[in-house]
Amino acid sequence: MVFVILVTILTAFVGVLSYFLYHWSFWIRRGVPGPRGFPIIGICNITYNGDYPPFLRIKEWGKKYGPIFGFTEGIKKTLVISDPDLVQEVFVKQFDNFYGRKLNAIHGDPEKDKRVSLFAAQGYKWKRLRTISSPTFSNNSLRKVTSTIEECALELVRHIEEHTAGGEQIDMLHFYQEFTLDVIGRIAMGQPDSQMFKNPLFPHVRSIFGESRQKLFMIGAISPIMIDIMKWFIVNVLPKKQNESNVIWSTVESAVRRRMEERADPDRLYPEEPQDFIDLFLDAKSDEMMDSIGNEGYSIRNHKISKTLTTDEIIAQCTVFIIAGFDTTALSLSFTTYLLATHPEIQKKLQEEVDQECPDPEISFDQLSKLKYMECVMKETLRLYPLAAPANSRTCMKGTVIGDGVRIEKGVHVVANTWAIHTNPKIWGEDAEEFKPERWLSNTDHFLQKGGYLPFGLGPRQCIGMRLAYMEEKLLLAHILRKYTFETGAKTVIPMKLVGRATTQPTSVWMLLRPRD
To answer: Which residues does heme bind (predicted)?
Structure first.
């Protein structure tokens, strides 16, 4: 009996080990170069460690292994591509074969999750959510929220005045995060007034981008089944206040259900115009005939897409917009601030443009479009610091061949080596590593086409909030630069120390803000 038990245990051990070795050797068997890591975990210990951002590692590996290389993270297989033409092919030309995004098991199954977000959804669900969400970010919709965003900008300027009265430095990263959470709370969640520097949700949203979930991501890459068990425990057993995600979900759910109750009250007069994202999603009740995406095979022509969202789907979309709108825009503002402070001649030129185009106390939507040099500054910042590079990934949904015979099997993830592409001298010239906003003043088409510039992704899944992010940045920077000049000080870390896994971020951006004459 003991012998049988031992044989069974040994057989099970060998079976499990063989299973992981088979996945770990995937790229070795195909002759594709790349970092191997260790059996079972692959390179999870590197890609899920935010002390040194994984996409900076990938940039370094590209120099060592070439424009195409592969690695494994547990049972996940990833192919990295650094050729802009291949990026264009995967993200645009063969989108039918790459319409999924690389996700960790913690995101759940996008086909079964009732609360799947636009970021994680794929196939028909993604197309449906994208169709419903797109009007929120049109120029017409953004024009309507300009005054609300400006109120948030002026509130931040007021806090800046309070904290810099004595000539002390402030961490602009923190200030920008307070601003972006306030904006998204006002335009997405029905928040009636500013909660800047007193928002109880702030520490919970901020922690999402910390390293507290590193081990969960590693477990998810190695054993998706284990992560399902742990997620069930977190959601159903762990007190909600002990889990950051639960706090955010609960807050959003309460806001959505409260709005539904208000709208159901026959005695309450409700504005015809949507007041925020919740209203927009609750009003989405019509059907629309259009080409759609099927979960089984991409194209299903003339399929009627239901634009009615479930309560769970509304909660999911509002949640993902809070998380996405909080960190990325704050980081872009932070990197821009650092570059302006370390390039005073560029900052002065930008201030001159702001003074000329925005002479009135209030800044209108139309005036923002005249800030051409500011747009160049923002684009150049995102070229040097493509902070959301992890979103530039796709999953092969159907085996195919790209480029000159590069075969990609179903289930393999493809990641664009964004940091390498953005500083490739063949695309950007010998000054590719330099901060030169002027490069965007003319002849920009060849930068933007064929996968050479990816701060917001590329193709049909390009970031839906791009225009909102640009608008927030322009409004806030214009108001700040009219009154202050960014300068480095004793606390400023030069060069910046970059950390992060989900996004690439500086540890801090301490600045002196000198009042202008």
So the answer is: 463
Residue 99, CB half-sphere, CA atoms under 13 Å: how many? 23
Q: What is the pLDDT of residues 401-446, one digit of tens each?
A: 999 999 999 999 999 999 999 999 999 999 999 999 999 987 665 5
Q: What is the DSSP string of 135-177?
A: GGGSHHHHHHHHHHHHHHHHHHHHHHHHHSTTS--EEHHHHHH
Tell me: the pLDDT tens digits for 90-124? 999 999 999 999 877 666 677 777 888 888 888 88
Please tell me the distance from the alpha carbon of residue 88 to that of residue 366, in angstroms, as a whole number: 33
- Tokens of residue 98, six digits: 């790459």
Grouping H, G, I as helix, E, B as strand and the rest as coil, residue 290 is: strand
SS3 79: strand
Neighbour-count burial of 313, counting CB atoms closer than 10 A to its CB (0-12 exposed, 13-18 middle, 19+ buried): buried
Contact (CB, 8 A) for 516 and 484: yes
CA angle 507, 512, 517 (to 5 degrees): 150
Angstrom CA distances, 95 to 103, 304, 341, stand at: 17, 21, 40
Structural domains of the chain sorted by starting position, each given as residue range(s) with its CATH number in brackets: 106-379+424-515 (1.10.630.10)
Burial class (CB in 10 A: 0-12, 13-18, 19+), 186: buried
Sequence letter at residue 237: V
Q: Which two tokens stand for residue 64?
A: 């060592």
Determine if residue 108 is left, alpha or beta; phi over 0 gives left, psi from -120 to 50 gives alpha, anything else beta. left
Query: In three state form, how does the secondary structure of 100-113 look?
Result: ECCCCHHHCCCCCC
Distance CA 298, CA 292 (A): 8
Where does 455-494 show beta strands of DSSP type E?
484-487
Which residue ranges are tagged as binding site for heme?
463
Which residues are documented as binding site? 463
Tell me the pLDDT tens digit for each residue of 299-323. 444 455 566 788 888 888 888 888 8
Report the DSSP beta bridge partners of residue 292: 300
Decide if 113 contacts 235 (C-beta within 8 A).
Answer: no
